[in-house]
Design goal:
This protein is α/β, with parallel strands linked by helices and 495 residues long. It is built from 18 helices and 16 strands. The protein folds into 4 domains: 3-179 and 355-380, Rossmann fold (3-Layer(aba) Sandwich); 184-349, Glycogen Phosphorylase B (Rossmann fold); 383-456; 464-493, no CATH class.
Amino acid sequence: MKKFRLAQVGAFDFENYGDLLFPFVLEEQLKHFLEIEEIVLFAPLGGPMPFEEGRTVYPVEKLEELHQEKPFDAIIVGGGDLVHFVKIQVIMPNISKEKVVYCPYHLWSSCSIFAAKYNLPLIWNAPGVPFPFSKQQEPFIKSLTSAVDYVSVRDSVSKDNLQPACEQTVQVVPDTVCSISSLIPREQLSSYYHRVCQRFGFSPEEKYMVFQASVMITEEEAKICAETLMEIKKNFGLQIRLLPIGYALDDIKGLSDIEKLYPEEFSLMREKLTPMETLSVIVHSQGYMGSSLHGCITANSYGVGAVVFNNVHLNKIPGYLELTGQKQNLVDHAEDLYDAFKKMMGQNISFQKDLCSKIETHFQKISHLIQQGSHPKNISPVSINTMDILVDSWQENSRISQEMQTAQTIFSQQLESERAIHRELDQKIACLQQSQQQLSAELQICKQQRNYFEQALQEMQGSIFWRITKPVRTLLDHLKHTKKGLPLVWQSLLL
């Protein structure tokens, strides 16, 4: 029986829990259908595989060299959020003390070029497509995906992003890590869990919940999360274990911001755990809460409820929760975490069997394509260097476009502010004009009254009575000036 040598490409060279599970899942699943000689791992940068002594992850640029030494029978891409043109920064202590630039597009794009050159089966193992492609990028996507024999993605969001730029039908398959409970029974994880408990001084019998957070958590969100965890501890009687999942993404920093608020109440697991140890901690918990998709997936796989805190609005999270009918467990704001956790604790995880069935069918198809072997492909010749230039150009255009959009937004805001000022001035002018009209009317009335009194005075001064009483008025004026010499009763009369 033929034994197959496979190349698997993904983010296998840095310390991120979910990505490191994919090679294990692929190998264990394919063993049900194929004789596997070797699965060689490739990643953007390469190096020793984290937490797996003696295993090497090769840089993807060495794919052709290793194929020429000993040919591969097929190339498998994924899983993980790989299919995009975004550069990210990750922590890789084996390469640099500083964060390094990571280019996932090197993986799937170079694989298309390589597979077309050697007519090898190329399979997408349900990766994620987190962003839609621009009109500029669509022709390259169509060309690169034309070399793929089986295009599968892990959720409907990924399909919606990819399908407009792909001539093939894009298949939706659950993230393959969903099947991990069928590959590793819960009882096999007990030894890993007891090892963790011994290392951290935990009692294996105590009940606890797991909380994970990324470095993207804000100071305000950290405060709210800390208060939420204290409320859970009080009302549910659960210990709180703060579990980093993405070491390469600096989860420790985000969790440290929470731990320092209640250092006596929370247990931050600072010492690094292997993927199997991390899995055992999640599996033995009463519930999971965090921003990691694969923290949620592995919890669900073993029947543990999970609430996902999607504070940075990643598309992959609602994609998975929609697929599994758990949209109610998606939380965007820290203030809603407690209520979501309370509701989650009463839920029954019943979708696992259906997911495992779909994943099994998926690997059956992959096995069939591998067994079929090579066939001619044809794509436009694009080198990885050319792709780098194109990506840099797209990113620069995107940056300029964003800056222009920002400038336009600022201008629009300023314009609207100026318009508001003008509207306010117009209102003030209208009010002043109205006041002026009222004052003019009142002035006219005063003038009329003055003319009336002047005319009345003239008539009175011209009357016989006014002339007859003149001596009396003269006398009274004189007395007013000399009233100090008069008795008080007379002074009072002259006031």
